[in-house]
C-alpha cells in the first residue's frame, strides 16, 4: 500500500549551534559618580545609547559630574553599531582598576551574561590623583596581572574573553614607562592597555577627567572586528568621524596630541601600548596595533603564545566551538578493541567532529588551518577520558611593508 500523501518530508533534527552570532557581545565596567537610575554593581544589558535614557545616563550626566561614563558607552556604539549587545555595570567612583578587576560583581556580570561576553573593558573616573611610578599610575601596573587572573578564571568557567584596561593618567615619556611586552614575571596574553584619547573631546573636560583614555572606542572596534582581524586594520577601521566631530585630533591620556609626542610613538608601539594615530598619506585615524601585555614566544616545537588580540580571540572562539560540538559526546558509549582502546575508525569519526569546526573557520577566513588528533591510548574503561590534541594555524598579518626602490634607465 502507498501513502496517499504522495511525498512526505520531515524536518531533520538540529544539532549543536555552530553559528557565531555572539562574537560581538561585550561588557563595560566603569567607576562612576552616583546615577539615581542605576545602582552600583548591578549589571544591565543594553543594545543602544537610547537604552541609557531609562537610567538617566546621557552626555549631561558626564558634563555635570565631570566624568567619562556616557562617553565610553557612546563611543562603543559609535564603532560597534547600534543593536550590539553590551553588558554594563557601574561601580563607585572611588573604584580603581585594581579593585574593579578583582570584584566578585564582575564575575557575576560574566555569568549572568549567559557566558557570552567575548571582550570586556574597565574604565575609571578617579576623584583623587593617582600615585605615579615610571610615568604610569601604580594602579594600572598592579591591575594588569590581576586582569590576567580574571581572564584565567573566565577561561576555566568556559567563558573566555579578552580584557581592555583604560590606560589613564599617562605621566611619563615613552622611554620611562614600563614595557608591557616585558613585565617581570607577567605574561598577560589576555590583557591590553589603551592610552589613546580623542584630544578634542578631552579638551571639554577638566582636571583628572581630561587625562582619560577612550577605552570605549577600542572596545567598540574590537566588537566590530572579525575574530582574526587586527583592530588596527587600516582599510576597515577609521576612528575619525567629521560629521560627529569625533577623533578629529588623536591624543594620549597625558592630554597631549600625538603630533606633540610624535618622536615617542614608535617606542610606545614597541612597548605594547595601544593608541590612535594618523598615517601620512592616509586620511583618518587608526589604531596602531593589537598588542597584549606579553612577549612574543615561540618554542622549539613551533608552539606560540597568544601575543596579539586577534590570536587571543581566535583561540577563545575555537575553544568555545570545540566545547559546543564535543559536549553532546559526553557519557556516550563506544566499542573498544581487545586492548580496551578505541578503534582507528572510531577515532577518525571523533576527530572529524572537531576538524569540521576548523574547516568552517578556515572557510570563513578566521584561521589558516586546524587539526584534531585523538590520543589512541585514551582510556574509556577506567578513566573514561578521551584525550584530544588541537592545533590551530592562525592567519598571517602584514604589520609593515619594507621595500627598495631605484631609478632605472630601463624597466
Automatic annotation (TrEMBL):
Protein name: DUF2586 family protein
Xref: InterPro entries: Phage_HP1_Orf23
Amino acid at each position: 500500500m502507498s501513502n496517499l500523501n504522495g511525498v512526505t518530508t520531515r524536518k531533520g533534527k538540529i544539532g549543536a549551534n555552530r553559528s557565531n552570532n555572539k562574537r560581538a557581545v561585550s561588557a563595560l565596567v566603569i567607576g562612576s559618580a552616583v546615577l539615581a537610575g542605576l545602582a552600583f554593581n548591578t549589571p544591565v544589558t543594553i543594545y543602544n545609547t537610547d537604552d541609557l535614557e531609562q537610567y538617566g545616563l546621557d552626555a549631561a550626566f558626564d558634563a555635570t559630574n565631570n566624568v567619562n561614563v556616557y562617553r565610553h558607552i557612546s563611543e562603543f556604539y559609535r564603532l560597534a553599531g547600534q543593536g550590539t549587545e553590551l553588558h554594563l555595570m557601574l561601580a563607585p567612583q572611588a573604584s580603581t582598576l585594581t579593585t574593579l578587576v578583582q570584584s566578585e560583581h564582575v564575575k557575576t556580570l560574566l555569568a549572568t551574561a549567559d557566558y557570552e561576553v567575548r571582550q570586556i573593558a574597565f574604565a575609571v573616573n578617579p576623584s583623587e590623583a593617582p600615585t605615579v611610578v615610571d610615568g604610569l599610575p601604580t594602579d594600572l601596573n598592579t591591575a594588569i596581572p590581576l586582569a590576567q587572573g580574571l581572564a584565567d578564571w573566565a577561561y576555566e568557567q568556559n567563558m573566555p574573553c579578552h580584557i581592555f584596561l583604560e590606560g589613564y593618567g599617562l605621566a611619563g615619556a615613552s622611554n620611562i614607562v614600563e614595557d608591557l611586552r616585558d613585565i617581570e614575571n607577567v605574561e598577560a596574553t589576555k590583557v591590553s592597555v589603551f592610552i589613546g584619547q580623542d584630544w578634542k573631546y578631552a579638551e571639554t573636560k577638566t582636571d583628572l577627567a581630561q587625562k582619560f583614555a577612550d577605552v570605549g572606542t577600542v572596545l567598540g572596534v574590537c566588537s566590530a572586528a572579525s575574530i582574526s582581524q587586527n583592530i588596527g586594520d587600516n582599510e576597515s577601521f577609521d576612528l575619525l568621524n567629521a560629521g560627529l566631530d569625533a577623533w578629529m585630533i588623536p591624543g594620549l591620556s597625558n592630554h597631549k596630541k600625538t603630533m606633540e609626542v610624535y618622536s615617542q610613538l614608535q617606542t610606545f608601539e614597541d612597548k605594547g601600548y595601544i593608541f590612535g594615530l594618523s598615517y601620512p598619506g592616509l586620511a583618518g585615524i587608526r589604531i596602531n596595533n593589537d598588542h597584549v601585555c606579553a612577549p612574543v614566544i615561540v618554542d622549539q616545537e613551533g608552539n606560540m603564545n597568544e601575543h596579539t588580540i586577534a590570536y587571543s580571540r581566535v583561540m577563545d572562539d575555537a575553544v568555545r566551538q570545540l566545547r559546543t560540538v564535543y559536549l553532546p559526546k559526553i557519557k556516550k558509549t563506544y566499542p573498544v578493541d581487545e586492548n580496551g582502546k578505541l578503534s582507528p575508525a572510531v577515532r577518525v569519526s571523533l576527530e572529524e567532529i572537531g576538524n569540521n569546526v576548523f574547516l568552517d573557520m578556515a572557510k570563513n577566513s578566521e584561521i589558516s588551518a586546524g587539526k584534531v588528533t585523538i590520543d589512541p591510548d585514551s582510556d574509556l574503561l577506567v578513566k573514561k577520558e578521551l584525550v584530544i590534541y588541537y592545533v590551530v594555524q592562525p592567519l598571517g598579518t602584514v604589520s609593515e611593508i619594507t621595500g627598495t626602490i631605484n631609478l632605472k634607465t630601463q624597466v
